[in-house]
Amino acid sequence: MDVRHHWGGPKLYNFNFEPVLAGFDQLLIGAWLTIQLSCAAMILGLIVSILCAAGKTSGIAPLRWVIDAYIEIIRNTPFLVQIFFIFFGLPSLGLRLSPNSAALLALVVNFGAYGTEIIRAGIESIQKGQVEAGTALGLSKLQIFRYIIMKPALRTVYPALTSQFIYLMLTSSVVSAISADDLAAAGNDLQSATFASFEVYIVITLMYLAMSVGFSAVFSVIEKAAFKYPLSR
Amino acid sequence: MLIRPFGWNEFWIIVMAAQWTIALSAIAFAGGGIGGLFIALARVSDSKWPRLLATGFIRIFQGTPLLMQLFLVFFGMNIMGFAINPWLAAAVALTLHASAFLGEIWRGCIEAVPPGQREAATALGLRYYNRMRYILLPQASRIAVAPTVGFLVQLIKGTSLAAIIGFTELTRQGQIINNATFSPFMVFGTVAAVYFVLCWPLSVLARRMETRFSRATAR
Questions:
Q1: ipTM score of the complex?
Q2: First-to-last CA distance in chain B?
Q3: Which residues of A touch B76 (CB under 8 A)?
């Protein structure tokens, strides 16, 4: 780091982005893993959410208690502690995971809890008459759940789900604490190799910002394409 | 290295570390409350520049990870000539973070006050300060209570990231104890339980207030 004194004035810091640019390909690889990790966690987490939301609205009391306990525990403890518990704690139960798999598992478990509440709210927004109409039309239970409940429910909660996803992507930076290979971890490696800490983290922060702006744009395109009905159908 | 078992002593060391989590949360919440009020007021301001600046501030803090915000403040303070101090860096970063989030939450609450209230206040000849102080903010604050308590839960959980920059609060104390006892299941289970005890009552309170409020306004 280059620190110069100006005629007895305050210390001036000269920014040096060269080492960051030299290691930029490392950061891109890290960013790609962050994107993959977030997308995989979102898809798996969405499946967990739909199953748990279905379980919660099924009317089976013990199932509802278990799902409620899962949601409350996850939503009232920090993600960092959850990932430490999974990465360091589970091996003592015989489940040893690589940092990347532990990161994925932790993100899925975390997203599942928030996603369940969002999807449950969507399911509860469907009027009873809709389901009754489906039964009257002779649709099977699965068809009713898929076409009459889930489709409009997902459309209703789409904005909430997408902002939860962007939050998941930002939260995924915490997996660097167990040295997974994501963007934040790539940044940690680069800063300890170059000592240009501030510059490295400025660049990484901007990369996260770009990813969250990018994902918002992609989500609004998907929204326009997927939820045009009933106009287009 | 000497490995000692996880006993009552270790349990209490972890539980007592919660005081630092509470202190950090309290500082960030108080600082964020003041900052958030200014951000919210700037966000609903009639003039363009405060509105733009506040929007930019919120976008940046909501669009980047809290962990990066902590790192930037931590290393940023260092190059500005301050000695490295995880406690101060965590307090500053979490205060800025809370300012942005509370600012955005409270903006929504101010805008949720029916526009007739503002018009009536203007018609009565109240200027900006009195209009905010006596008409808009008191009504907005009633709407704001539930989501603010909800955010406090987020903030308490967020303080755990201060462990990564080396501030010894609840999570970091857990890591230290884990390094000495090698019983991660017990250690992080205990840490999680302490966070749960801190956060869960607040979550329940926020939910209750929200239900009561929506029932009261549904009439």
A1: 0.93
A2: 66
A3: 198
